[in-house]
Amino acid sequence: MVNEDPAAWSQPSLLELEAGAPPSGAPPEPASAPGPAPRDSRSAAGAECTAAGSLPERLLIIDTETTHLDPDEGRCIELGAILFHLPARAVLAQLSTLLPCPENPAEPVNGIPAAVSRLPMPWREGLQAFAALLDSAQLVVAHNAAFDRRWFGRPPLPAVPHRWLCTMEDISWPGTLGLKPRPSVRDLALAHGIPVWAAHRALTDCTYLAQVFERCDNLDQLVREGLEPRHLYRACISYEDRQLARQAGFRWNDAVPGAWSRRLSERQRQGLSFPVVAVDENASFVSAKRREMGG
C-alpha cells in the first residue's frame, strides 16, 4: 500500500540536469505535472471511424506497470505505448517511460525499483509524447483493458476518450491456436511463434501484441468482431457442468455474485453450448462494490 508523503522524494528538473546543478528541492508531485490539453468526449481521429462498417486504421497499443492492483492504493510506475497501423500491419511509433514513485510494493512482479523511477529523466516530455500518439489514434488496445483503463484520468496519466479493445476479453482467437478463452500475453505470443524474452514490463508487452498483430492474416476480422457490442450474461448451468462455463471464458463470482458470468457479443452468445441470461450491468457493478467494501 503506497500512501507516503510525496515531499519525501524529489525529481530534478530538466533545466537542473542540463546545467549540471544539483536538485533544488522537491519538484511538484507527478499528480501536479502539466498534462495534455483537455479533450472532447471523442478525439478528432476517433471521429473518422464513425462510418458504419469502417475499421480504425491507427491503433494505440498500451500497457501499464503499477505499484498496486488498486489505483486508489497505488500509482502507475511505467507506461508503454505503440502506435500500430492496421492496414499496413506496421509499427509507426513507440515509447516507454517510467513515472516517479516513492515506493513500489509490486517490484517482485515488475522488477522496477522505486529508486530507479526517481532517477533524472524527461518523464513529463514522455507523457506529452504519449498524448500526441493518443491524439493520432482511433482505437486504444490493451491486454486486460479493464485493468489498464482504470489508471487513466488519474494524474499524471491523461484521460482516454477513445474506445478500448481488449485482446484478452474482446477478441476470439482462432481455436487452431490452442489458447484458453482468456489467454495471457505470453501464451498469445508463443502461439504465434513469437519468442518471449521478458515479462511484466510495459513496452515489452506492447511489443508482443504488435508482433501478434503483424502475424495475423485475419486481423481485420478479429478487430471487427472484437468491436461488436457486448452485454453481461450469466450462465444457466448446473454444478456438474460448470467446466463448460469455465472453458467458455466465464468467471465465477466475478461480475455476478454466486454465478458464472462474462460479457459477450450476440455472435458469441449464439455460439455457446449452454443457455445464458442477460444481467443488469449497473446492478452487478453495485453488487461488486458492496463485496469490495465487505457489505
Concise account of the structure shown:
With 295 residues, the protein is of the alpha+beta class.
Structure description:
This protein is α+β, with helices and mostly antiparallel strands and 295 residues long. It folds into 2 domains: 199 residues, Ribonuclease H-like superfamily/Ribonuclease H (Nucleotidyltransferase, domain 5, 2-Layer Sandwich), CATH 3.30.420.10; 62 residues, no CATH class. It is 30% helix and 17% strand. The chain has 12 helices and 9 strands. The strands form 2 sheets. Strands 3-2-1-4-5 form a 5-stranded mixed β-sheet, with helices on both faces. Helix 6 links the parallel strand 4 and strand 5. Helix 7 packs parallel to helix 8. The longest helix is centred in the middle third of the chain and has 14 residues. The N terminus and C terminus are likely disordered.
Shape: globular
Number of domains: 2
CATH topology of the largest domain: Nucleotidyltransferase, domain 5
What portion of residues is helical? 25-40%
Q: Tell me the structural class.
A: alpha+beta
Can you count the beta strands?
A: 9
Unreliable spans: 1-48, 284-295
CATH architecture of the largest domain: 2-Layer Sandwich
Total helical elements: 12
Give the terminus-to-terminus CA distance. Answer: 22 Å
Q: Which percent range describes the beta-strand content? A: 15-25%
- Whole-angstrom Rg: 21 Å
Largest beta sheet, briefly? 5 strands, mixed
What oligomeric state is this?
Answer: single chain
Average pLDDT over all residues: 83
What's the helix-strand series?
A: HHEEEHHHEHEHHHEHEEHEH
